[in-house]
Amino acid sequence: MTRRARIGVFLAAGAALGALLLWAYAGLPGFGHYRGPYGFVLNRIATPERHVTNVVNATTYDIRGFDTLGEEYILFAAVVGVVLLLRGRSGHRDAGDRVHSDLVRAGGTIMVGGVALVGLWLVAFGFVTPGGGFQGGVVVAAGLLLLYLAVGYRAWSAAGDERHLDPLEAIGAGGYVVVGLVALAIGLPFLKNMLGGGDSGTIWSGGSASFVNWAAAIEVAAANLVLYSEFLKQYIVPIARRRG
Amino acid sequence: MSFLPYAIAAWICLVGLYGIVTSRNLIHLAVCLTVTQSSTYLLLLSIGYVRGGGPPIFAGVALGTTAVDPVVQALTLTDIVVSVTVIALILALALDVHHTSGTIDPDEMGELSG
User: Which ipTM did the prediction report?
Assistant: First the structure.
């Protein structure tokens, strides 16, 4: 098919799809006129029943915990796919692209700890204030990536070493299921929140869903680090070749 | 005006699809796919918005205060994280295509074989 013909077909199909989308959206309640009921019910019961104040996190890891399990495994499968495609293609361990500014090196290294700490804080207080396993995990991984940006590839490759990232990712993905199975083993439904709610508004809230929260954080942080590691290796090879 | 966010969601979806259809570069194509996908974030968050509602977080806020729907926020959150890793997978496939056929222009890759 020529390019012109393809665009012509798309314009016809796109117009039809756009009309259908607008027709479907016109049937929704108007913007700002949410009718519920689930959102209102959750906002009303999550704090008294589960002792958590961040209802989004309670929805993700407790009330819809089973759906999030599926989503976590989409993430896991995508990362395994990336590893299958990219790993083992390159043997370079060091590209010699060090950062030479002492200020950038020192400032960046201090930031690694600071950003990782913010990430851990987001995970730990996920059931209290905005945050949670997914967000915190991404921030922790980004903090460690600063090692590459501020110091160089050699410093990064210690943090991005697949020999400890692969087991961590498996622990995160598997830990989620284990929390669900423990509930099953003691005669409760899969992933049922155990241990009581804890103290609302403190780090000790969320019950067993807080273990699910941490499992997701480990999984997301390790998955992101694996991705950075594999793509950086692809990027490093041409640099290393250019420099001989 | 209460329809505007939905109309924008439909527009973002179609603009992304247009980019995918006309793309001359697999990396550009992957970015267009994220544009299409981000229309779902806007749609979900728009559906759950309550006029005058605050965030569904009740730390220091009285229970019963009007707040937006937490379910669509949780869906959007996982949607974003999953989309990032799926895009990473697509970029890895683009690298693989470049490795085997020497180009990332979908029009120049020729017939699929094997």
Answer: 0.85
